[in-house]
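Pasting as-is:
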Amino acid sequence: MLLLMLSGLAQAAPYELGQGYQLPVLGLTAGGYLSLQVSALEGEKSKATVQDMSLFLHSDPRPDWHFFTEIEVSNPVTLTKSGLNSTDIDLDFERFYLDHNLSARNTLRFGKFLTPVGRWNQIHADPLVWTVSRPLTTSAAFARNASGAQLYGSWPLGRSAIDYQVYLDDTALLDPTEGHERTYMDLSVQPNPPSSFRRGAGARLRYRTFDDQLQAGVSVAHFQLKDLPGFKDMVGADLFYTRNEMEFSGELVYRQDDSPAGKSEWGGFVQAVLPLMNNFYGIVSHERYKAEMFNDPVNSTSLGITYRPSSPFSVKLERRESRGEERLAPDGWLFSVALLF
């Protein structure tokens, strides 16, 4: 695939950062993102990592059909005091799906896709989010990817709109090797089961208004997770508001085992982004999260500054302080450089 990309660059259309390359090969467009991260966290080894190298390939083979895949290499190179190593390298098809437009407002998707829970999980790429760290609320209670079918679309509502997503997952059948990513990413904490569905179903509704400046969503799901017993029932909510480059957002999630004696998992976070000067932004966020497998909740507060001269490129510095179950969000410094290409 890389040879096909390189051979087509000379003939490709003029390139704009973040928009991908138009390749004269099967109508493909190639893009992706690169993320470099440095962390100095209590209880963890200080390290510098090529965190993610993701390649996007997409095309429209017919007017009503759309193909998309994301091939991701995580942690290909890590630098610690002990030297360079690549023992944590992970190659994965993060997304691999085919869309068919049923109508102008409704689409059917088949394959592997980002689980439609909340807002963050469907954005998630480092260049597109404001902080280096990812809130537990946006990833720990459910699998970040689903394999199966999804019906999604939008209904107009005056000057507003309601978007919907309904999905069925059977990862155990369709992607049985899934499960290499852990629930608590980049941490050595135990227990740390795989972030993978066995099977399940769910839905999300999102209300958008004021030219998408205000968005509010709700999510529901019923599923089994790999290596965890029983079914889980989950509900979530998310809110987003932006104006004059200021941004306020937050998510909530609650998960209950589907049994009379079932344990629960819950959490929520809020985040504010304020413009400073010359493409610098200040970020403050706070999260409280209670994981099913740990006795105490964690309360973490992060302060950060992000330099974003254009939407595809960002440089971030973040300081995090936690109380309670600090192993899930260790105190310390985080730094990253990310580029969407």
